[in-house]
Specification:
The chain has 572 residues and is an alpha/beta fold. It is built from 21 helices and 16 strands. It has helices at residues 16-27, 31-37, 48-57, 70-82, 111-115, 121-136, 167-182, 214-230, 244-250, 266-276, 291-294, 299-308, 320-332, 338-354, 357-362, 370-376, 380-393, 425-428, 434-444, 465-471, 539-549, and strands at 39-43, 62-65, 89-92, 141-142, 187-193, 208-209, 235-238, 241-242, 282-285, 314-315, 395-399, 413-420, 448-451, 474-480, 511-515, 530-533. Strand 4, helix 7 and strand 5 (187-193) form a beta-alpha-beta unit. The termini are far apart.
Length: 572
Amino acid sequence: MADYNLLKKRPFYLTEESVKWVKDTLEDMTTEEKIGQLFCLISYSSEEEVLKSFVTKYKIGGCMGRPMPLEETCKTVTYLQKNSKIPLLIAANFEAGGDGLIKEGTNIGPNMQTAAAGTSEFAGKMGYVCGREGTAAGANWAFAPVIDIDKNFRNPIMATRLFSSDPDLVKECGVAYTKACQEQGMAVSIKHFPGDGVDERDQHLVTSINSLSCEEWDASFGEVYKACIEADAMTVMVGHIMQPAYSRRLCPGIKDEDIMPATLAPELINGLLREKLDFNGMIVTDATTMAGMCIPMSRRKAVPYTIAAGCDMFLFTRNLDEDYESMKAGVEDGTITMERLDEAVLRILGLKAALKLPEKQAKSTLIPDLEKARQIVGCKEHKDMELDCADHAVTLVKNKQGLIPLKVENYRRVLLYPIVSGENALGYAGGEDITEIMKAALEKEGFAVDVFKASEGLEGQTSKYQDMLDKYDLLMYVGNMITKSNQTVVRIEWAQPMGANCPIYQADIPTMFISFANPYHLIDAPRIRTYINAYKFKQANVDAVMDKILGRSEFKGKDPVDSFCGMWDTRL
């Protein structure tokens, strides 16, 4: 029997009237409607035929939006909410700003940039902007904040998506985001439990591991999760990440092959998250399209088992018809008991009630007002926060040769070396041409800029070393290597022939490296003596970098991670 009393506790705090709505709604639902509520799907457009099947055929509980123009976002949300009997959770990856859902949205972050300011101030401002811009477009659920901890600079997916390697700073930032975002009427989802950033592999591609001991986990990830839960985080996103130490402690004698990622590990969901950390809110899986979930267990079994193990909501599908039938079969064969199904739906409905979605549905205010949204999304208040964050965050990691402040008259002739991600780099960077934008920014200040092109000669046939010394006063590397799904490393792949763009002239020509994305490039360019981390390639950060390298503004950022990657030679 459903325990409605849990809805009166943290983080729901429902009134008797709201509990009654949950009770009446749950008791009036068919089994098929309950199964539909378990699914949170994804929308890439406002195509009505697709959206119609979501809400009429499958009767889903929620939908995540990918970034679309504001008008199309509002159109999508309007159709979904108007045609859904039970109001929907509308989510997005609000990890850095409103641009997680709306292309015109303000980008305050990423997380590491906000933490580089040295306090939780800008993490709170980011939560505020995400909540304001997101709710203006009809969203009510943030798949954020990322409260993973940087324990391994080789991790190919986290990088600037996480705040810091300092658990205390991660905790402060996570709590600040949680409070600020939820004050705007948007639920957060702290992620990725039990914690990414330890393994050097990506859960999109493999079932990754949080390999900390129970004691190490308690003192780091455990403290961060506990603080955010006590700050009333409404939901937790569970990752396809194993935590073997706790699985072994909670299941004595468990075989190695039976250790599962948290999404399929009842001991981690119930024993660690629910009982030890006292989390009473709603639990959602991470994207079930990831290999990290698909590898360790047959998908037919895994789909219902995520719910049986203790997750309340199932994020995305590989094939909607097939996964829905697998979930339905899991209910019919008892993998998901009716008691477990009701408990999951209870918490889903409880979250909707806590967000006052039923009242908004009754008042027709679930539907976003496009004109009001235009006044909020990308407004001056938010853009000023973005500029302020950039000013406080840009970090001077090394200035060993006293290059900064840079005098144009001393270093006028510049050779620019773009270091980008390769395939899909521009798409993940937002479409900017890093080369032309940086070239224009430098030329505006009076520098004469050439862009590096590898010569076609092989060993013994390259241009003279002295030619470079005669031609250039400054070599500038500009990095924009974005972390993204389906990559296994984020390392510089130097040009042919024989690392043609390696910093081989730095002993004779002043050389600097500005990274606008991954903060760990010193591992591949250790003896470069002037190094700057700017965290994201966007105009506000480019402007801040230019002001600082030219001495018009002081560097204020504090390194939130070990940019030296634990290597002695990177400090030279």
